């Protein structure tokens, strides 16, 4: 209760939350709100390697909404929980590839859209960082696969539409139409 004091009129006022620098396990400098000596609330962390996180903190960990920009050119904008990407977010790689969707403990999980730098896209379910469940893949030549995926491969019922319009329907195994 150190941050609360009773005003003259009987109202309760919150004193300014402690701001200042703080060291993080990854090295660097934090400027922002702190509670009980810990990064907590809104703040910016500048890492020793030039990377930066701007957003919400809880008990010295990225938690809530925030943007992490790595010195490599990669960037994540979205939800965090205990220093890990959790919830909805957008990750952009330096080569232009992007993932827009759900994350669980730093892993693509749930619904999402991945776009490769050549324009190919996958829209659908993810599990353990792999395409898994129902999804659609569109190649850069216009070909398309709509169907089931298991461990990042076309597996199960699906439809393959060739760039010339020819359509193949059936069972896929190991990424190939088997019947």
From TrEMBL:
PANTHER family: RADIAL SPOKE HEAD 1 HOMOLOG. SMART domains: MORN. It comes from the Bacteria. InterPro entries: MORN. Pfam families: MORN. This is Phosphatidylinositol-4-phosphate 5-kinase. The keyword tRNA processing does not apply.
């Amino acid at each position: 209760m150190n941050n609360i004091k009773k005003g003259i009129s009987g109202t309760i006022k919150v004193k300014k939350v402690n701001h200042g620098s703080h060291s993080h396990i990854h090295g660097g400098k934090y400027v922002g709100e702190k509670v009980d000596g810990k990064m907590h609330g809104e703040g910016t962390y500048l890492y020793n390697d030039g990377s930066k996180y701007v957003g919400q903190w809880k008990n010295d960990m990225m938690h809530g909404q925030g943007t992490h920009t790595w010195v490599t050119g990669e960037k994540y904008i979205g939800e965090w929980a205990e220093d890990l990407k959790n919830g909805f977010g957008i990750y952009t790689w330096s080569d232009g590839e992007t993932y827009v969707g759900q994350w669980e403990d730093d892993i693509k999980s749930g619904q999402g859209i991945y776009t490769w730098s050549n324009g190919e896209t996958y829209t659908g379910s993810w599990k353990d960082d792999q395409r898994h469940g129902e999804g659609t893949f569109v190649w850069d030549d216009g070909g398309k696969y709509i169907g089931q995926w298991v461990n990042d491969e076309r597996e199960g019922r699906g439809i393959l539409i060739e760039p010339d319009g020819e359509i193949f329907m059936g069972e896929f195994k190991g990424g190939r139409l088997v019947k």
